């Protein structure tokens, strides 16, 4: 008798709606790496509570190449995400990975390193603004 394995725990759901891609792009929180661009945004508050804690979207423009090349880029990105994002991604966030021409030629280990680096940079808090010294203080001598 064949056993069935529950793959829902290891599979990260994908974003399908254009409005989700536009929402994430509109947040303007992204990081560029040689093999990909990663965009992220917090999930909307009005989502169903049963929605998975991390969702992912993939895209590759025609600049990457013809349809088979774009499909290959997205397949490579999906495999990198399967290996990296479940353990490294921030809960409650959506991610979009944008493929580049370099995604086709880059080694798989380099793509994994790129995604880990992007996630690390995107999940760290932004640097605090430099402390400015008070210049406009009027002192009374007296």
Low-pLDDT stretches are: 1-9
* Helical content class: 25-40%
CATH topology: Ribosomal Protein S5, domain 2
Based on DSSP secondary structure assignment, what is the total number of beta strands?
4
Going by CATH, the architecture would be 2-Layer Sandwich
What does this structure look like?
Strand 3 (54-59), helix 2 and strand 4 form a beta-alpha-beta unit. The longest helix is centred in the middle third of the chain and has 22 residues, at 67-88. The chain contains four helices and four strands; from the N terminus they run αβββαβαα. Helix 2 packs across helix 4 (108-123). The protein has 142 residues and is of the alpha+beta class. It has a single domain (18-123), classed as Ribosomal Protein S5, domain 2 (2-Layer Sandwich). The protein has helices at 18-26, 67-88, 101-105, 108-123, and strands at 30-33, 36-42, 54-59, 93-99. A four-stranded mixed β-sheet has the order 1-2-4-3, with helices on both faces. 37% of the residues lie in helices and 17% in strands.
Nutshell version of this structure?
The protein has helices at residues 18-26, 67-88, 101-105, 108-123; strands at 30-33, 36-42, 54-59, 93-99. It is α+β, with helices and mostly antiparallel strands and 142 residues long.
Which descriptors would you attach to this protein?
single chain; about 140 residues; alpha+beta; Ribosomal Protein S5, domain 2; four-stranded mixed beta sheet; about 35% helix; globular
Write the topology of this structure:
Elements: H1 18-26, E1 30-33, E2 36-42, E3 54-59, H2 67-88, E4 93-99, H3 101-105, H4 108-123
Parallel strand pairs: 3-4
Antiparallel strand pairs: 1-2, 2-4
Helix pairs in contact: 2-4
